Amino acid sequence: MRVAVVGASGYTGAEMLRLLDGHPQLERAGVFANRRAGEVLGQIYPHLDRDGQQVVESVNVERLAEQADWVVLGLPHGASAEMADQLLDAGLGVVDLSASFRLPVSVYEKHYGPHPCSERIRQAVYGLPELHREALLGARLIAGPGCFPTGVTLACYAFYQAGLVAPQTLIADCKTGVTGAGATPSSVTHFAHVADTVTPYKVEGHRHAPEIANNLSRDFIVPVRFTPHLVPLRRGILSTCYLPLNEGAVQSDIDEALDAFCSGAFFVHRLPDGRQPSLARVAGTNEVEVQAVYDEEHQIAVVTCALDNLCKGSSGGALQALNVALGLDESVGLDHLTPAMP
């Protein structure tokens, strides 16, 4: 199966190329990016083109239709939606890494503005296999989840599914590395601004909050107070979530719910008691580490989660979803990845 990557000069696009190169049943079918079209891929990312033979092509639907069966889109929302619409009309499958197809139309337009092809949203399947494995089988338009929503959802879903959480505000405090801001340089991600400090941002409201709420809402609409922080790391998201529990819930209920969820989630691992998630252990992999502790005094569960924002939080999770859509084992091309540190 031939897979082309659009937006290949960005971090998520480059990560998808890295993963495709290690996939035994998918073939890299072209590298496309308007901003750096005409450049040799090896000059941008030497590890992806050691021989310097791969030229980045400008984005062209006809060219993509000639070369690929599926296209991974690493473009901004809006532009990504328009491109997806054209590619689907041309008969290609699409994995979209933007926010274009993650939310219901009314929620999307409230937070992102008018949608250029809103009728496509109903066709899209949210690309989180741990929640939507059956729906993904045979899908032709996959909406890749956001990086923060992936971490918070995988940390908390088990407890909402088990009916343990009270209908009160979920507080999610998340730390992310600078690659989450994209490859385009800015003063916000300049070394002198991020080194030796931790900076909260979009405290007044982040657009990933409604996506988290949409994922977790079952018996009631989950109120979400989500605050991201930028930390001086390249990769990784560490999420600390505070869940208000129903009266009578205890540690054994938390343990049972999380164990049940992790037993059906290949990449999500509950750590032994007393051990907390580590960004170093998940860096460069599709693995997710989770821990949950019961705070009896405040009747809350404190759930911590670590993942790689570029891999499981973006391209790795999207490739996992594509595996499911194609009827492959979801771990193919992802289970061989090893962390940067033991």
Question: What is the gist of this entry?
Answer:
Helices cover 32% and strands 20% of the residues.
What does this structure look like?
The chain is globular. α1 crosses α12 (311-325). The model has no long low-confidence stretch (mean pLDDT 94). The protein starts with a strand and ends in a 17-residue tail after the last helix. The chain is an alpha/beta fold and 342 residues long. It is built from 12 helices and 13 strands. It folds into 2 domains: 2-123, Rossmann fold (3-Layer(aba) Sandwich), CATH 3.40.50; 148-311, Dihydrodipicolinate Reductase, domain 2.
Secondary structure: helix percent: 25-40%
- Sequence of secondary-structure elements: EHEHHEHEHEHEHEHEHEEHEHEEH
Mean pLDDT: 94
End-to-end distance, in Å? 34 Å
Report strand %. Answer: 15-25%
- Please give the order of strands in the largest beta sheet: 8-9-7-10-13-12-11
By CATH, the topology of the largest domain is: Dihydrodipicolinate Reductase, domain 2
CATH architecture of the largest domain: 2-Layer Sandwich
- Total DSSP helices: 12
C-alpha-based Rg, rounded? 20 Å
Question: What's the structural blueprint in terms of helices and strands?
Answer:
Blueprint lengths: L1 E5 L4 H11 L5 E6 L8 H4 L16 H7 L2 E4 L5 H11 L3 E4 L8 H8 L12 E2 L2 H8 L4 E3 L3 H15 L8 E7 L14 H4 L4 E2 L8 H8 L7 E7 L6 E8 L6 H13 L4 E3 L8 H4 L5 E8 L4 E8 L3 H15 L17
Parallel strand pairs: 1-2, 1-3, 3-4, 4-6, 5-6, 7-9, 11-12
Antiparallel strand pairs: 7-10, 8-9, 10-13, 12-13
Helix pairs in contact: 1-12, 6-12, 7-9, 7-10
